[in-house]
Amino acid sequence: MSGTGVQALLAGAPVLVVLVLMTAAGWSAARAGLVTAVVTLVLAVTAFGFGGTADPFTAWSGSAGVLAEAAFIALTVVGIIGPALGIHHLQQRTGAALRLRSGLARLHPDPRLGALLVAWFFALFLEGAAGFGTPVALAAPFLVAAGMPPLHAVSAAMIGHAAGVSFGAVGTPVLAQTALVDFTGAELARATVPYHVILGGVLMTAVVLTIGRAFGDTRGLWSWGALAAVAFLVPYGLIATFVGPELPTLGGALVGFAVFALVLVRRRGRAAAGAGPGGAIPAAPPSTPGATTSPVTGAGPGAVPAAVPGAAPVAGRELPMVLAAAPYLVLVALVLTTRLVPPLREALQGVVLEWETGTGFSGSVQPLFHPAVLLTAAFVAGAVLQRAPGRDVRGAVVVATLQLGPVLVALVAMVTIARTMSRAGMTDELARTAAGVGAAWPLLAPAVGAFGTFVTGSATASNVLFTELQATTAETVGLPVLPLLGAQGFGAAVGNLICPHNIVAAVATVGLTGQEGRVLRSTFPTAVVYVVLGGVLALLLAR
User: Which residues, listed in sequence order, are joined to residue 170 by a DSSP beta bridge?
Assistant: First the structure.
């Protein structure tokens, strides 16, 4: 094997190690991440000259800098998870979760359709408006409250929001690309959206299968899945093609939800009269034959899983539907106001907290624009509007806070791996090796985007890392640039399905901390199929 081949193999070793430990060995993200972080730092120093004469830092100060960046990023993610968990636990304690579940049943008696609505439209809306982990942090607990086992809830929410990530957070991933290449946001949006519009059915297929497994039946669900896919993907594609990158996900989710809900309401009478969309209506996740508990959660059918501490709802008054949904409604209002009112958005983005070590390590955050602030405000507003007793508010905060310890450890470990690989040039080494395939590059272009998100946890960061590589490689081998930049944006979105620190954040919100490997095993096949098909499509579009 050539020296370059050995370097590429060593550069990819951390990715392979963390995948094997989390999937084959079944280790938790914290345990697998800590071991792999040590392996990555050792490889960075010994094989890639991390902290050598070419760097403005030593191996020790470089390792400290990487850890500082990892801790900072992890804290910004925990800032999202904490209040999201708080909302979930407060909703359980006040009985609002059960009230919302009954409300979904009134929209249509088949709980699978409520789950489809949340996993697809609600998650996509939050991705389009806020991004940065908010969709799964809110949608997964909502799905659990609606009767889905936690594992299926997380998987459905992660898969359901993936198509929207390319234009998430009001177009942030595409806007990051515009700073690196000589194409407008509108041109990049038109280059990216065909991948999702043509292949988005793959994601919906996975969502339908996940919901079907959770409730023990997919009969009649396929036609509703097709409706949901078309209702989102058509306006999503039109907005990206004719308007630009800021609103495809947000607008597609709102229009699609309206269409889907209208059809649901019109069909409600027939379904309530005795049959779901395809026959009998499953009332809750199924149990094993002769058992009274779910084989996945250990809870009774439709119950809140015991894995979520303090989750049992309080008996007593039934909240009006509007109040039961108060935290989510307030969150939606805040998201729309802060993202779509330019003067307010600019004012909030103008407040920046940043730090730098002097040796190139740094971090920054826009605290007033960060989803953590919106989620915290939604939690407080929910508690006030629902007139939650003080003991319930305190209990929700305490339980949520206690769950964050293992999550923080796992996040710091996973981000340490990512930052070390980036700082040591290991990520670039893998990308350069992949670029050596020449005219077959389009087949790998989406995989590079997905890999970037896998190691950074962000589609935006993946685009920043690899957009120039995609453009340069396309020019070098004589291929059109735009289709490959679209493939980059597409692949970066797919990487969200398998990114370890995204999974860590997701499982924390439903009480599955330590079982991240199970979620990765459930989302990995979908990500692989989507990326491979994206590569084939890129090859066709780049002709």
Answer: none
